[in-house]
């Protein structure tokens, strides 16, 4: 991974009590002791009924950004957030907890600073909810680290945050392709048919997922031989055709005599326990299970070991689900529920209401998390609740460590649902069970930007929505947004309508084929910019306020920068034939993109506009004095070498861009094994000077043989030329 430097001098660490070592951070810095009498900059700090409380008075125009994968606006004001990892499959606007915990916040207003709380359990953020102008942060513990970044430059703050918490994870290059998922494609036959569907419909795709039904009765690390006979051969066959298979891995280990993972884990003491040492027995998909104690390094190694066969069979990626951890019920709560049900006599409506409530609140109860412990090898018994938010982090870490052990030097693909600060060093995430609602396109944009602030550059939502029935119009619009999301994965739940891009009428399929090709045409740009973002520790998908000044841009939550040159403004309203856009500061080259090789460009002055945009296209804007690089789409990444580029530039003065390529599969770029072309374009009268500087290594010579240039000037005039490399 790219190396990080030391911390700058604007960061102060206040330490309260004796915090748990979460490993959210990778650098130790000196700390100041924080006591209830301490004065700390920006905050009124008090101790109330055992809670440590930080208050900050918000000025009228203060914005509050951050908190990763939470609901609410990108500006977090006016709402309450409870950072406690929760599996909630119903993302309605009132929900305060979802799967992730990112207590990293930026204040942007009269004062400008940011802070990070390193604490692994519940933190409550009341950001102008109880009192419009007060942000109150409540930590129900005395033991935590509180970092304050006293710096007004937002990009400097992010860089500092990522120096402190580590550089972002880099997936293999094929992860920039399209991925198809469904709960479930339950057997080899179905998976093959889906793969064939892509080729037959001439739709590019790089990966197909295997949801829980591939297992024998949901037993983790098993493959049902009836559904997937000769699995290893199947993995190989799929790969030869350009499809990676990505199995799901859930943490709950089924309690079943003779099942090796269960027997071995029990023998070695790998599972979470009750206070008296009995293994805790929560119910999830397999029925009653035990939860591995991922907090313990030895258990992570043990768990990692079960991935070896899969990796040897050619599996290059996994997705980790249910790792909040989600708990459907426990033996005790099941008994209690049965009692409640049999006591119900149907006499009054309130009793019915109470019954409904007890059923509705049956899963993921807070009390479950206070019932079990992590027994550590050094003898400590750690109450799960006290480190709750670390569970998904450590589960995915176990998987990452397995890849590093069994496929050393190779990049792996790994998605997690639950996560917290620091996760971004070794995995990517998807944002869980959204729904086929137009509103959730907006939610996705906000989350992508907020998660990028927390270092999770590679993330995305279920394209088309997980729950609910989708109409083709929504899927088309969402596929357009997805084409400019790092993770581009279509996923949907069982008992919903089919959601593959060809599942509707012919016209819709044709539009989606073009969108998919557009995604693949953009890969040279996306990959180059992603790798640069990681190197520079700068968000890849970013909110406009990172690039443009002034108050106006701060309100914009449905346009975003994708790399440094491109602004994306997806249409996300039903029936819309266009949308309002704000074009900040400079001129923009507008492209309503539907087909990658049909470009009708228009120069637009800064300002606010209603931009027309028919169903088949998405409004894209190339920033003044910048460029993008496209290529011919392929069926899957790596099918053919990328040998020619088309650079589309909008230059009124001068612009530069670095095209980047490496093997897409290893970390050898760290040793200089990558190639790059730095492209400089300078306007000279009516013509342009183009300078190319090549960086090549012996191991990774440049594959590009020629570049076509399409350069637009301020009047929208096109200048074209071609260069051989
Ligand atoms: O309780 O594995 O978010 O993506 O398809 C539901 C089945 C379990 C939730 C995940 C979803 C996945 C589903 N899982």
Give me some keywords for this one:
725 residues; alpha+beta; eight-stranded parallel sheet; globular
Strand runs, count: 41
> Strand order within the widest sheet?
25-24-22-19-15-14-13-26
* End-to-end gap: 29 Å
**Over all CA atoms, what is the radius of gyration?**
26 Å
SS-based class:
alpha+beta
Strand content: 25-35%
**Residue share in helices?**
10-25%
3D shape: globular
Helices, by number, come to 14
Sheet of most strands = 8 strands, parallel
What does this protein structure show overall?
The chain is of the alpha+beta class. Strand 24, helix 11 (439-453) and strand 25 form a beta-alpha-beta unit. Helix 12 runs parallel beside helix 13. Helix content is 22%, strand content 27%. It starts with 10 loop residues before the first strand and ends with a strand. The model has no long low-confidence stretch (mean pLDDT 97). The chain binds ligand MIG. The site of ligand MIG has 11 residues, from loops.
Chain-wise SSE layout:
Blueprint: E1 11-16, E2 31-33, E3 44-48, E4 51-57, E5 63-66, E6 79-83, E7 100-101, E8 104-108, E9 112-118, E10 123-127, E11 134-139, E12 144-149, H1 154-165, E13 178-180, H2 188-200, E14 207-210, H3 231-240, E15 244-249, E16 253-254, H4 260-268, E17 283-284, E18 287-290, H5 297-305, H6 308-312, E19 317-320, H7 331-343, H8 349-360, H9 366-369, E20 373-375, E21 381-383, H10 391-406, E22 413-416, E23 419-420, E24 428-430, H11 439-453, E25 459-460, H12 472-482, E26 488-490, H13 506-521, H14 523-536, E27 541-542, E28 560-562, E29 566-568, E30 578-583, E31 588-593, E32 601-604, E33 607-612, E34 618-623, E35 626-630, E36 644-650, E37 654-661, E38 675-684, E39 687-695, E40 706-712, E41 718-724
Parallel strand pairs: 1-2, 7-23, 13-14, 13-26, 14-15, 15-19, 19-22, 22-24, 24-25, 36-40
Antiparallel strand pairs: 1-12, 3-4, 4-11, 5-8, 6-10, 8-9, 9-12, 10-11, 16-18, 17-18, 20-21, 27-28, 28-29, 29-34, 30-33, 31-32, 31-34, 35-36, 37-38, 38-39, 40-41
The structure holds ligand MIG.
């Amino acid at each position: 991974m790219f190396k990080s430097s030391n911390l700058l001098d604007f960061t102060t660490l206040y330490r309260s009590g004796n915090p748990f070592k979460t490993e959210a951070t990778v650098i130790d810095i000196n700390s100041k002791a924080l006591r209830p009498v301490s004065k700390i900059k920006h905050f009124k700090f008090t101790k109330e009924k055992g809670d440590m409380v930080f208050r900050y008075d918000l000025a009228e125009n203060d914005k509050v950004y951050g908190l990763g994968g939470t609901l609410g606006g990108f500006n977090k004001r006016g709402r309450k957030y409870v950072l406690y990892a929760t599996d909630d499959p119903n993302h309605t606007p009132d929900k305060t907890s979802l799967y992730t915990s990112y207590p990293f916040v930026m204040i942007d207003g009269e004062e400008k600073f940011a802070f990070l709380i390193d604490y692994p359990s519940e933190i409550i953020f009341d950001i102008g909810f109880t009192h419009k102008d007060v942000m109150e942060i409540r930590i129900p513990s005395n033991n935590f680290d509180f970092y304050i970044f006293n710096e007004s430059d937002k990009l400097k703050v992010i860089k500092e945050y990522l120096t402190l918490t580590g550089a972002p994870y880099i997936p293999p290059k094929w992860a920039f392709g399209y991925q198809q998922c469904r709960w479930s494609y339950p057997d080899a036959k179905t998976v093959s048919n889906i793969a064939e569907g892509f080729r037959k419909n001439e739709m590019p795709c790089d990966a197909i997922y295997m949801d829980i039904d591939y297992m024998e009765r949901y037993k983790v690390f098993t493959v049902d031989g009836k559904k997937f006979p000769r699995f290893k051969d199947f993995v190989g066959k799929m790969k030869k055709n350009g499809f990676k298979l990505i199995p799901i891995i859930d943490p709950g280990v089924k309690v079943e005599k003779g099942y090796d993972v269960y027997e071995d884990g029990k023998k070695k003491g790998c599972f979470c326990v009750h206070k008296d040492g009995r293994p805790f027995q929560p119910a999830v998909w397999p029925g009653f299970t035990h939860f591995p104690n991922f907090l313990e390094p030895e258990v992570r190694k043990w768990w990692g070991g079960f991935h070896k066969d899969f990796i040897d069979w050619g599996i290059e990626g996994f997705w980790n689900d249910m790792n909040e951890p989600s708990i459907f019920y426990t033996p005790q709560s099941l008994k209690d529920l049965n009692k409640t049900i049999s006591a119900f006599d149907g006499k009054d409506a309130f009793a019915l209401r109470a019954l409904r409530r007890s059923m509705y609140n049956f899963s993921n109860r807070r009390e479950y998390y206070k019932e079990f412990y992590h027994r550590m090898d050094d003898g400590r018994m750690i109450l799960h609740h006290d480190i709750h938010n670390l569970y998904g982090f450590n589960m995915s870490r176990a998987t990452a460590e397995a890849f590093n052990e069994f496929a050393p030097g190779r990049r792996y693909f790994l998605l997690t649902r639950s996560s917290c600060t620091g996760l971004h060093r070794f995995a990517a995430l998807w944002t869980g069970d959204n729904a086929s609602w137009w509103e959730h396109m907006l939610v996705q944009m906000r989350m992508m930007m907020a998660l990028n602030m927390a270092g999770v550059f590679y993330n995305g939502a279920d394209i088309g929505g997980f729950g609910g029935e989708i109409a083709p119009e929504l899927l088309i619009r969402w596929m357009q947004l997805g084409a400019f999301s790092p993770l581009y994965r279509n996923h949907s739940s069982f008992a919903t309508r089919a959601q593959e891009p060809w599942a509707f009428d012919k016209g819709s399929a044709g539009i989606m084929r073009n969108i998919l090709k557009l995604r693949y045409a953009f890969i040279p740009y996306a990959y180059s910019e992603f790798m640069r973002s990681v190197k520079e520790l700068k968000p890849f998908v970013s909110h406009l306020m990172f690039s443009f000044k002034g108050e106006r841009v701060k309100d914009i939550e449905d346009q975003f920068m994708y790399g440094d040159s491109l602004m994306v403004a997806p249409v996300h309203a039903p029936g819309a034939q266009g949308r309002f856009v704000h074009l900040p500061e400079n001129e923009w080259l507008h492209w309503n993109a539907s087909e990658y090789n049909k470009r009708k460009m228009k120069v637009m002055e800064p300002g606010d506009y209603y931009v027309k945009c028919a169903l088949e296209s998405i409004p894209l804007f190339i920033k003044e004095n910048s460029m993008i690089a496209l290529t011919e789409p392929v069926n899957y990444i790596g099918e053919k070498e990328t040998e020619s580029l088309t650079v589309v530039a909008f230059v009124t003065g001068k612009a530069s861009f670095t095209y980047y390529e490496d093997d897409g599969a290893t970390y050898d770029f760290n040793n200089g094994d990558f190639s790059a072309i730095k492209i400089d374009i300078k306007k000279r009268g009516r013509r342009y000077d183009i300078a190319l500087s090549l960086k090549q290594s012996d191991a990774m010579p440049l594959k590009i043989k020629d570049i076509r240039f399409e350069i637009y000037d301020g009047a929208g005039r096109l200048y074209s030329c071609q260069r051989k490399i």
